[in-house]
Design goal:
The longest helix has 52 residues. The protein starts with 14 loop residues before the first helix and ends with a strand. The chain is built from two helices and five strands, in the order αββαβββ. The chain is elongated, with a radius of gyration of 27 Å. It has one domain: Glycoprotein, Type 4 Pilin (2-Layer Sandwich), CATH 3.30.700. It is α+β, with helices and mostly antiparallel strands. The chain has a five-stranded mixed sheet with strand order 2-1-3-4-5.
Amino acid sequence: MTGLKNFKNNSGFTLVEVVVVIAVVALLAAIMTPLIAKNIDDAKTGRAENEAEVIAAAIGNFYKDVGRWPTMDATAAFNGVTTLVSGNASNTGIAINSNGWVSAASATVDYLDNHLLDNNPGGAATYATSGRNAWHGPYLDTAPMDPWGTPYMVNIAATDSSSTSNKGLVISAGPDGVIDTPFATTRTSLPSNDDIAVSFYVR
């Protein structure tokens, strides 16, 4: 006569065990999600600060080579440009009309690409490529949008020699996509709310 075998019950997890595991996972997710989101936001802010600094440095290098700020056309006549924006004409949805910062559709706006990546200013002709004040670009590898998909904007009018302080400003609208820093006071004011800004000037 064959002996009886004692089989273990291998029916899997109990309902209580499943509920406990789900509760632990939910608790960890609740703790980790804000931390991960904050790290992502911090990384985007850091990237925006870095890119704004790179753009400001590129404008400074342009000035050292060409002998003037990119507020003028290639004939050295002031062409009314007050604002430079990253991106180019193929980009869409880059108009910003808050606090005095004008839209990319305005005649007072030109693209960073036209001055720093290509020798193709929005005014007339091109910058000289030989001689003392020659264009030796490109000064940037790219003129990117900020991490939130909005163009960087440059208050290039603030570099005008008649200004009380010849400082320009490269600004990102930050996470909310709205520039809260007034255009007219950027020479002396700190950026407002979530704006990210880097000032530049030549001594």
